[in-house]
């Protein structure tokens, strides 16, 4: 019966759950899958989430379909390990997120009015989340911001939490002033301080940059991904133009590559 389920392409999520159970079977499963635990799988979960975001950014819908499947597999993997340890099951995970969505949308599933602005709905959402944190004995404003988040994203979330309780600069001008201050401290640190202190000053500068993005309404992670893509695109074009000259970057001078870089930028903006 289990084999029939595994080969039934119309069986949906139950098929995937059975596949994972078989992969993790101590006697007949895959040795690699059996050896994994929450810690070893977590990096793959993070990687798959980024690959989903990458497919969305490239608007590659067939690729996105596959990446969403990979991300779903991560949830199934963690749920199976949770079931084996007696912590939770896939069904309890589904129930928990369903309950949460219903509770956080009283204007859809309850008796509250839907006639609210997006800002009011966001404020209500945050109020409900604050109540949930209080129920989990998370009393501090920063409690519950996951340590495992990418550092730039976590900085943004920490700043948003602090801003909700009034710990925030009132204007972008003050953030820019702080940015100049931190940049000057970093310049000074590179000549006078230890590598550890330089790292500390560099972190301060990045933290203020994240705050500046928040004040400007810019997602720092999205902005940096966009710049990474732009750099990759332009550098690959520099490589292509060098190739027409029979050269590689390592065989070229900085001046030659910089001139080509400027030409590529100009061509993009034309």
From TrEMBL:
Belongs to the nucleoside triphosphate pyrophosphohydrolase family. Gene3D superfamilies: MazG-like. One of its GO terms (biological process) is dGTP catabolic process. The lineage of its organism: Bacteria, Pseudomonadati, Pseudomonadota, Alphaproteobacteria, Rhodobacterales. InterPro entries: MazG-like_dom (IPR004518), NTP-PPase_MazG-like_C (IPR048011), NTP-PPase_MazG-like_N (IPR048015), NTP_PyrPHydrolase_MazG (IPR011551). Keywords: Hydrolase. NCBIfam families: mazG, PRK09562.1. This is Nucleoside triphosphate pyrophosphohydrolase. Its EC number is 3.6.1.8.
């Amino acid at each position: 019966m289990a084999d029939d389920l595994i080969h039934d392409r119309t069986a949906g999520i139950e098929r995937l759950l059975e596949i994972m159970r078989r992969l993790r079977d101590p006697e007949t499963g895959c040795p690699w899958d059996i050896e994994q635990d929450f810690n070893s799988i977590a990096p793959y979960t993070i990687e798959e989430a980024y690959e989903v975001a990458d497919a969305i950014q490239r608007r590659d819908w067939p690729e996105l379909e596959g990446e969403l499947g990979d991300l779903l597999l991560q949830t199934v993997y963690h749920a199976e390990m949770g079931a084996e340890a007696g912590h939770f099951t896939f069904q309890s995970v589904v129930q928990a997120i369903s309950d949460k969505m219903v509770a956080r949308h009283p204007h859809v599933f309850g008796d509250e009015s839907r006639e609210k602005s997006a800002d009011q709905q966001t404020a209500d959402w945050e109020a409900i989340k604050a109540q949930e944190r209080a129920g989990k004995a998370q009393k501090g404003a920063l409690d519950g911001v996951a340590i495992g988040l990418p550092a730039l994203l976590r900085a943004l979330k920490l700043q948003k939490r602090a801003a909700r309780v009034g710990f925030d600069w009132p204007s972008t001008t003050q953030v820019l002033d702080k940015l100049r201050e931190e940049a000057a401290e970093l310049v000074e640190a590179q000549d006078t301080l230890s590598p550890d202190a330089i790292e500390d000053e560099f972190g301060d500068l990045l933290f203020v940059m994240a705050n500046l993005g928040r004040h400007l309404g810019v997602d720092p992670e999205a902005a940096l991904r966009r710049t990474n893509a732009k750099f990759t695109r332009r550098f690959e074009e520099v490589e292509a133009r060098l190739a027409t000259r029979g050269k590689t970057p390592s065989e070229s001078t900085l001046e030659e590559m910089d001139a080509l870089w400027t030409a590529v930028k100009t061509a993009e903006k034309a």
